[in-house]
Amino acid sequence: MKKINRRTKVIIFTIMIGVIIIGAYIAGILIPDSGVAPDFSNTKLPPSFSHPFGTDWLGRDLFLRTLKGLSISLTIGIMASLISGAAAVLIGIAAAMGSRRIDGIINWFIDLVMGVPHTILIILISFACGRGMKGLLLGIAVTHWTGLARLIRGEVLQLRNQQYVAVSRKLGKSGSWILVHHLLPHLLPQFFVGLVLMFPHAILHEAAISFLGYGLPPEQPAIGIILSESMKYLSAGMWWLAVFPGALLVCIVLLVDRLGDNLRMIIDPYSAQE
Predict the structure, then answer these.
(1) What confidence score (pLDDT) does residue 1 get?
(2) I need a surface site. Which of 70, 214, 217, 273 has the fewest CB within 10 A?
(3) In three state form, how does the secondary structure of the chain look?
(4) Quick check: 225 and 218 in contact, CB under 8 A?
(5) What is the pTM of this model?
(6) Structural domains in the chain?
(7) For the chain, how far is it from start to end, CA to CA, in angstroms?
(8) CB-CB contact of 208 with 95 (8 Å)
(9) What was the pLDDT predicted at 178?
(10) Measured on CA atoms in the order 181, 187, 192, 198, is the torsion positive or negative?
(11) Contact predicate 38/61, CB 8 Å
(12) Largest Cα–Cα distance in the chain?
């Protein structure tokens, strides 16, 4: 029997991770509001076959509520990562293709954003925008573009010195033509992998800010809200209110991070040879 090579194993494992994440996301979206409605006849029940994660003080099924909250966290993570990734590509290209003065200003601004702790900056932005989904999205998007922007800038600076780019300039091709036909095809894999690796950070920051009370409103069943509410009942022995939602969040974050590493190994020829 022919042995499966390492690259094939990575591709199969990546597909499995993607199916798990997409399945959890779709399952959370399909859960109706009635599925997480209060049921005072089943309050404070420990984990069982009928309620795998137990129930809370209002009798709500914690498993269904956690899945629904996870879909909200994933939605915010996807949207914030896309906004932040697009900004990183534009800023990175502008820094590399612009004048030395523009490059210096952009690098100074990147250092400024990176010098402020992300949690504090997200809280300030979220508070200034009146909290809620809008402020949380803006805060996460503003704070997560710097690393990818520097990566894109370095990649563009390297590509600009390639021989085929110099030949295109000699043939009279414009800067926009070179950008579309020579630079962007090389930047897309970096952008895609950077987007996936940015995703778990966005999810964790969303949960942390909501946990602190500066993110989503309390009526939203987000993971951060669930964990924040559970703190009041841990001393009463209701450990399952924090353990299962927190463990599921950590598992999803680790899976997404692993997905990003696998995609980098598949797309990047240098990583594939490691």
Answers:
(1) 42
(2) 273
(3) CCCCCHHHHHHHHHHHHHHHHHHHHHHHHHCCHHHHCCCHHHCCCCCCCCCCCCECCCCCEHHHHHHHHHHHHHHHHHHHHHHHHHHHHHHHHHHHHCCHHHHHHHHHHHHHHHHCCHHHHHHHHHHHCCCHHHHHHHHHHHHCCHHHHHHHHHHHHHHHCCHHHHHHHHCCCCHHHHHHHHHHHHHHHHHHHHHHHHHHHHHHHHHHHHHHCCCCCCCCCCHHHHHHHHCCCHHHCCCHHHHHHHHHHHHHHHHHHHHHHHHHHHHCHHHHCC
(4) yes
(5) 0.81
(6) 6-31+61-272 (1.10.3720.10)
(7) 25
(8) no
(9) 77
(10) negative
(11) no
(12) 78
In the structure encoding, which two tokens stand for residue 203, read together?
Answer: 């999810």
Residues 6 or more apart whose CB falls under 8 angstroms from that of 262 comprise 10, 11, 13, 14, 17
Q: Please, which residues have CB within 8 angstroms of residue 67's CB and are 6 or more apart in sequence?
A: 24, 27, 28, 31
Q: What are the tokens at 14?
A: 């990546």
* Contact criterion met (CB below 8 Å) for 251 and 232: no
Please give the chain's pLDDT, 274 residues, in tens: 445 566 777 788 888 888 888 888 898 888 888 878 888 888 888 888 888 888 888 888 889 999 988 888 888 888 888 888 888 888 888 887 777 888 888 888 888 888 888 888 888 888 888 777 888 888 888 888 888 888 888 888 888 777 777 787 787 777 777 777 777 888 887 788 788 888 888 888 888 888 888 888 877 788 888 888 888 888 888 888 889 998 988 888 888 888 877 777 777 655 544 4
d(CA 195, CA 49): 38
Cα–Cα dist 45/57, whole Å: 9
